[in-house]
């Protein structure tokens, strides 16, 4: 009971997530039951990771969103689409909610220090001292940003009545969040941003001016990015993301070189027996790798169409290489 974060944190502004601002527990208990969403899953690709989640709030507010994360060696890209709620509360996506302890640190938004809490429109980047940088991709968002001191008690955040739980504690927090609007105004909104841990303000500004990642798609059917030679996609249905064209739900990553193409794929629904997808612009004659025996390949004018046996894989990553004969 000596730590400060839980009693001073605002639960609905916790780790990066999409949530509604409303009275306590309108959704019931998060994690108390598995929601009837389409799927939550992901795929790995060496040091690259991809995860997708169809967010369904556990209560009656109708909170929904499609969310995807793409982790690279120096950054994490977060995409969200089709945010909505059936309630009237305000919906926010938390980018950062950092307990700074009792120390003061500077939060910059487009080079301007932020204190208190305020609405910020048209932001391109942000930086939190001793933490890192944040680059807002695509359309400049409407943000809530601030550094503020908060007070609270353990008893105020729980039913624990042990001695000392009523002691007021104080901590400083830095907050960044997308403000999607309230009720019907939030319908169909989304977000796209990259986090650069440890980046300086100057480096963050450079990333914002010359992004190293391109958002290829961010909607109800697919979410995907391209970074260097890597194209990665979260597919909710049949759709194309850059060189990747999926015929149904899957998580898919590919990286090309002149001699070969490396592929990772998974069935996040854990309900399909096979996955089918096209790799545009790829020329290959052979398949190798630990999971090559699960792969069927047909060459065509656009590239190659692949069929992957995912029966019994329980959503795990399947990896293989495609090679062009000399």
Q: What does this molecule look like?
A:
By secondary structure, the chain is mainly β. 4% of the residues lie in helices and 51% in strands. The chain is built from 2 helices and 26 strands. The strands form 4 sheets. Strands 2-3-4-5-14-11-10-7-8 form a 9-stranded antiparallel beta sheet, with helices on one face. A 7-stranded antiparallel beta sheet has the order 15-16-17-20-21-26-23, with no helix packed on it. It is globular.
Which descriptors apply to this entry?
mainly beta; nine-stranded antiparallel β-sheet; seven-stranded antiparallel β-sheet; 2 helices; 26 strands; disordered N terminus
The string of secondary-structure elements, in order, is HEEEEEEEEEEEEEEHEEEEEEEEEEEE
Class of secondary structure makeup: mainly beta
Q: Give the number of helices.
A: 2
Measured on Cα atoms, how large is the radius of gyration?
Answer: 22 Å
Ends: how far apart?
66 Å
Strand order across the biggest sheet? 2-3-4-5-14-11-10-7-8
Largest sheet, strands/sense/barrel: 9 strands, antiparallel
What is the global morphology?
globular
> Averaged pLDDT, please?
89
Strand content: over 45%
Q: Are there runs of 5+ residues with pLDDT below 50, and where?
A: 1-5, 11-15
Annotation, overall tally of beta strands: 26
Helix fraction by DSSP (H/I, runs of at least 4): under 10%
